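User: Show me an example of a complex going from sequences to structure tokens.

Assistant: Sure. Here are the input components:
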Amino acid sequence: MGQKITIEPVTRVEGHGKVTIHLDNEGKVEQTRLHIVEFRGFERFVQGRPYWEMPVLVQRLCGICPVSHHLAAAKALDVIVGAGTGEGLTPTGEKMRRLMHYGQIFQSHSLHFFHLASPDLLFGIDADPLKRNIINVAIQHRDLAVQGVMMRKYGQEVIKATAGKKIHGTGAIAGGINKHLTEEEREYLLHGDEYMDIDKMISWSQDALEFFKDYHKKNKALIDGFAEFPGSHLSLVRKDGALDLYHGVLRAVDAEGKKILHDVDYQDYYKYIDEEVRSWSYMKFPYLKEIGKASGWYTVGPLARMNTAEFIDTPLAQKEFEYFKQYNEGKPSHKPMHAHWARLIEILHAAEKIKQLLNDPDLMEGELVTKGTKQFEGVGLIEAPRGTLFHHYKIGENDMITMANLIVSTTNNNQPMNEAVNQVAVKVMTGRKEITEGMMNAVEVAIRAYDPCLSCATHALGKMPLEFEVYDRYNNLIERKFRH
Amino acid sequence: MSKAIIATTSLAGCFGCHMSLLDIDDRILELIELVEFNKSPVDDIKKFTKKCDIGLIEGGCCNSENVHVLKEFREHCRILVSVGECAIMGGLPAMRNGIPIRECFEEAYLNCLTVVGNEAGIIPNDPELPMLLDMVYPCHEIVKIDYFLPGCPPRADLIWEALVALVTGDEMKLPYEVVKFD
């Protein structure tokens, strides 16, 4: 667990995420900051590269959900090659990409729930960190571990069948896709063996939801009462208001659920969203222009999607969605631990979608690519597992990239995470000069609820190593601790 | 025989190599019979608690912190393995090597289309942020590396075969399908 670390020599170990807390003389919290400390420079170094490289190049931002970057880049290039802004692909092109994306949602959410969240739920947030991990889950709850491992594998196999490779594949190209699904691949994913079976995946997804709901009943204080961070939520939704993880219009709702961004075409995203630069973090701070820097921030991700969408177009997930909505009395949920619940509803939705698609003959035959008139600019958005992901490219006469703008999911959650850190710190630290283990734990749980993918900004499998520093009013370092 | 002890880290990488390690799927259950994990993002152990037999390094070095962590791994691990293109040759992040770092910053924080209110010209430079290196460096230019596993990412079977060979001392099986790059 957290231990006292001296300032010299530099013992900052992969300090991907770092929290600093400043106290005044009376021990009141004056300032809190969550710093993101890595910088890559993608926007600049992709300039001068041919546009068609983007889907394979930019996905190397993140190996945890590379398909999201792969598809967001491909969607932006669809516009550039004149294949329309989302509805112009051939049925085969769109459905193969959707299958890839649902495979990705399925594997990434399974990874988060089983590998990362389940140790907290099974062993308790205060359990010994040496024991609170997936390895110990495998030792003590073997069935659950096998389920998690095989669900993730299933999603990865869907990606391999559509992208050629489990990580950093090549399936999506400007204007479509580069392959059909073969009969063998279809059969393997429908009923391949004991585990490679879509019906089993659907039933396991339901089991996971039951596990969570049962846990929720027994642990209401943790799931409902841990903290509450009211704010706005943003995501893509289908034009009719349905949850759609691959394509849609941009919608935001305020804390009460009132629409504040009215289903706009995302090609114009930059008319609605700006980013603030602060000197103490490499990650920028997006906000809705109309509302302004101070309170225009918003949250993205599974919970945000439950709050923006009106319904889900697959029957089993819709039933769970209705129960979720009913539980929250039709209002947006601002309870960070409800994100686990939302994630599990999306796992079920993704499994249902995969089954629908596998039974669709369009995957096996039909035109792969749409061609059109070249454009010089394109925007591609997708609902990545962790939220809305923005890719925007411009090209020159010779087809080389001249501008790239990327707003990744976790960047959208920058201000909400900082708000969460501040609230928790004020709540548990006011009047105290020593950082207790409990306080660090509370801050970490608050941040982890956002499932920050810090590889798109730096990431440690959801368990972000945190460094805490507390300063007095004269900026003297009082205390420094680490927590992993 | 006591279990071999393994540590892993991601420096300037994307975590894809760690994901590929997880892609050994149910063999993970075999792996934990074979080895004990120490400092690694797959568990909650943040600092080395003992000497390790094998260190797996993902990613090259792009800032002072990466260098610090890499040196610490060399110190604590008997065998150090560069896993994937970024550790071996800087990989994709090294695409910035031909470009002055200032231009990368300006593109992200000043010229960016969605950064309109930055009249003050703020570029993040807080003392809390680690110093960026002039270029992205492969790991073997910083410390001695014992083995290299190529691929972006190296496929799960290659990582598995290499680990089993290192732990058991048996010769590694290297069929063509396993070593070919992308």
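The lines above are the inputs; the final block is the predicted structure for all two components together. The mean pLDDT of chain B is 89.
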